Amino acid sequence: MLSKMVRPALRATVALALMSGLATAAMAQTAEGYWQGVQKSGRLRCAAAVAPPYVMRDPASGEYSGFFADLCREFAGVLQVNPEFVDTTWDNIVAGLQAGKWDLSLALNRTPTRAMAVQFSIPAMEYQISLAYNKQNPKIPAGATSVADLDRQGVTMAVMSGSAQDKAISAAVKKAQILRLPTNDETRLAVVSRRADILVDASDTNQLFTQSNPEWAVALNPTPALAKQGVSFGLPHQLSTADIEVVNIFLEERVATGHVDALIRKAVDQVLKTGN
Prior knowledge:
The longest helix has 30 residues, at 2-31. Helices cover 45% and strands 22% of the residues. The protein has eleven helices and twelve strands. By secondary structure, the chain is α/β, with parallel strands linked by helices.
């Protein structure tokens, strides 16, 4: 009688042990994050669509440069794997990430539409519309911080016609004249020739302008901002919070210490030197 009672108990104990073992194995499998899988593969696949100074590609050697390319290499170094750049286009850079063709998409502007398809790291930099001008221009008041400070009679602002910058500045100014021109080159020339007082353009483009004219050109990121978006790594949608935190901690330190700013300046200097 006792043995008949013990046998079911033993079977239940064995079943519980098996279930416990399976649960432990499942937990161990779940605990392995996305980046551990990348480490096993030995390569970090970074999608690269050309957009100087973020991402550049030498047509002769195929070598990638630009500050987001540098960040890809540095993150690969943290993971102790080889960086692998995958050439793509801006039309496909999100879809390829969704399809698992690469692990990171470089230099993606954070938008609500994209956030429904992929995840984002914290921004490596902020994209915004800035105002570049001659610091010796008497029409520009000292200590200006906002568009309202520059919105004066007699002030001319050059902007590329129909662009996002055009829409933003047109909604913000009431007194200054807006000079709408077909291309970015023409807007820059208007400020250089003093046909216009202020160049309204993306902050990265205006950084190229000010670094190529360091003796007189300065740029203002107005407060409140005309437009502002973070520029980040695009990440696969299935990444866990812990996986995303790995990338965020990597970027957080480099942004805080000024390392990313130094990479941006290096990339801008390269664009100015090579014309790419």
